[in-house]
Write a structure and sequence with these properties.
single chain, Butyryl-Coa Dehydrogenase, subunit A, domain 1, binds flavin-adenine dinucleotide, FAD, 4-stranded antiparallel beta sheet, Butyryl-CoA Dehydrogenase, subunit A, domain 2, 392 residues, Butyryl-CoA Dehydrogenase, subunit A, domain 3, 4-stranded mixed beta sheet, AcylCoA_DH/ox_N, 3 domains, alpha+beta, oxidoreductase, 47% helix
Length: 392
């Protein structure tokens, strides 16, 4: 019996875009992603195809050459990529880093970069926030940018700057006023748009970090990097607010990827459980196998409601820190639970590379750590939503 496919929301958003992404992803099957994973190679063909189809420019306004779609369209694109068995991490950052430039950059900066990004000639894939000593405490970053005439001189080190080797531009957070001289804790940091093409080997050194997933992540060393004042995005010392704004979009998009992962795991698990027969009946007829899959399905669908709500609030310009954080928390946990259930359903075969389950299992685990770890979301909810004392 052909299984029905109830693995979409009842009324999926952006059905035509979803179909287009599904068609594109069908050209890049599991074997494509497995090969890239094995070699830790950048999925260039996938990124090129997504760029050529215009999906990576979906959030760029039409005035700058994009399609001017709202966040829910970008979420639908990334969800479909993950639901097809692929992974959007090779390029998803362009969707949310671009927002910082769009909302806080000058008109000159927007005109200089956004049309090129929309045409796919320029890549803005790198987001340099994390540092080795600061960890989740972003306000403690040590990279400094000191004004010197018409330039800023930047000194420091970033870690986990994903895709830096595959990006022309990097959005960088650096301290412009020392921590003990700011009136508010969140002030004193600034955002810069660094043109990596001009600076690699001249103030910027990139070192890849090999990880348990194929993520093209790196360390970036900034040594007397001299950039013009025109590289500053928005006003000096206000950069933390600018990146927080982009981080809500990031949380929603990552959560949508988790929903895609969760739906992929549930689909794989239900198909396998319906086919695989041991002890004379399909394993899916055994409650010990069927019920965890049904539970994983319910959890993914529930998380998706929060993702949709967060995207809507972002699109309407309403405060969305609470919903964006909850969407990321619930979706990443639902995806992980679905992944664990899927692996268990496949038994030994779940560990074999050919089924893609072990790859997706590794990939979806990241989202409880990055871009923000689960504990930090819980701390945010505890303090800022529930009004409890600040967690230390
Ligand atoms: C593959 C990958 C790609 C990444 N890509 C990027 C990128 O492109 N750009 C970028 O800037 N960063 C990136 N990151 C960094 C990512 O955002 C950080 O790893 C994440 O924010 C956690 O920081 P940390 O690793 O320093 O962990 P830490 O802050 O050291 O935390 C370690 C553990 O302690 C817990 N913890 C810390 N503080 C508290 C607290 N106050 N209360 C309770 N628990 C706490 C955390 O939850 C975590 O489990 C990436 C990371 C990875 C692994």
């Amino acid at each position: 019996m052909a299984l029905p496919s109830p693995l979409d929301a009842d009324a999926p958003t952006w059905p035509e875009i979803r179909q287009g992404v599904r068609d594109l992803c069908a050209r890049l099957p599991g074997s494509y992603w497995r090969d890239k994973d094995r070699e830790r190679a950048y999925p260039k063909e996938f990124v090129d195809a997504l760029t050529e189809a215009g999906y990576l420019a979906c959030l760029i306004p039409e005035a700058y050459g994009g399609s001017g779609l709202p966040l829910s369209a970008a979420a639908a694109i990334l969800e479909e990529v993950h639901k097809s068995g692929g992974n959007g991490a090779a390029c998803h950052a362009q969707m949310y880093t671009m927002g910082t430039l769009l909302r806080h950059g000058s008109e000159d900066q927007r005109r200089a970069y956004l049309p090129g990004i929309a045409r796919g000639e320029l890549r803005l894939q790198a987001f340099g926030v994390s540092e080795p000593d600061a960890g989740s405490d972003t306000l403690s970053i040590k990279t400094t940018a000191v004004r010197d005439g018409d330039d800023y001189v930047i000194q420091g080190q970033k870690i986990w700057t994903s895709r830096a080797e595959h990006s022309d531009l990097m959005l960088l957070l650096a301290r412009t006023t020392p921590k003990d001289r700011v009136e508010k804790r969140s002030r004193g940091l600034s955002v810069f748009l660094i043109d990596l093409r001009q600076h690699i080997g001249r103030g910027v050194e990139i070192q890849p970090i090999r990880t348990m997933i194929n993520h093209a992540t790196t360390q970036v060393f900034l040594d007397d990097l001299r950039v013009p004042v025109s590289a500053l995005v928005g006003e000096p010392d206000r950069g933390f607010a600018y990146i927080l704004d982009g981080m809500n979009a990031e949380r929603v998009l990552i959560a949508a990827e988790c929903i895609g992962d969760g739906r992929w795991f549930v689909d794989q698990a239900r198909r396998y459980a319906s086919d695989r027969t041991v002890f004379d009946s399909p394993i899916g007829a055994k409650q010990g196998v069927q019920f965890p899959i049904a539970r994983a399905y319910a959890q993914v669908e529930a998380a998706d409601l929060m993702v949709q709500q967060a995207a809507q609030r972002f699109e309407r310009g309403q405060p969305c820190g609470k919903t964006a954080n909850m969407a990321k928390l619930l979706a990443s946990e639902a995806a992980w639970q679905a992944g664990d259930t899927c692996l268990q359903t496949f038994g030994g075969y779940g560990f074999a590379e050919d089924y893609d389950v072990e790859r997706k299992f590794r990939e979806t685990r990241l989202y409880q750590v990055a871009p923000v770890s689960t504990n930090l979301i819980l701390a945010y909810l505890g303090e800022h939503v529930l009004g409890m004392p600040r967690s230390t």
